[in-house]
Here is the input.
Amino acid sequence: MKVLKFFKENKQFTLFFILAMLIVCVAIFAPWIAPKDPYEAVMLDSLKAPGGEYICGTDKLGRDILSRVIYGTRTSLVMTLILVAVIFVVGTLLGVLAGYFGGIIDAVIMRIADMMISFPGLVLAIAIAGMLGPNLVNAVIAISAVSWTKYARLARSLVLKVRKNLYIEAAVVNGTKTSKILWRHILPNMITQMVVTAAADIGTMMLELASLSFLGFGATAPTPEWGLMLNEGRTYMAKAPWLMIYPGIAIVIVVVVFNMLGDSIRDILDPKQE
Here is the structure.
């Protein structure tokens, strides 16, 4: 009953949570939802307009666009969640270390963070991805390398705030192990804000991954990935606009849903709201 009451009281969260779960279900059950094999090329059906056998048309190789968009949900969502998890863990860990121990550790971590922030994020990610080579794993590494700084700075500021509490000083005076202080006293008082930030960043990170794929530094053919599909459709934009329309619509819908879900979670969990 408490769960039902929670959903009734937070209608915006409920709506976008349901939509997000539908997107996740599409990713999980893609093999059963997709009408055709997204990798199957039928050259006789090359660049067929939407309608009939192909609801969303076909690409230059005669592959079904609808099936590729559906499978693209799996590729884009999984890699985005991995990316968010990586920058969340790395950024939070470094921020906690910098904020709690201070001194040279704080100086080194924050100077590296400042150095990364001084460059335009996407440009630096392109440079890193270009050196590593074009594939989704390297794209995740490249974006992670320039995105962890936000989490590190936020985690550091939260740790500095929590450290001023008397119970932390009391724990230190009583000889409590550092690991125990971090795990039992520091993390529980900051993790909510970090999770809210991560949830709100899912849409942004998905756009950045799609951007790298669109520019040729992310997914490689024949992977069904929305950014790559947009890139492949550029050449035929006038002749076959559906090659860009449907992947573009998919990106917009998923990014909006996860952005709104993140905002809803922030409204519920943000301590300032309370």
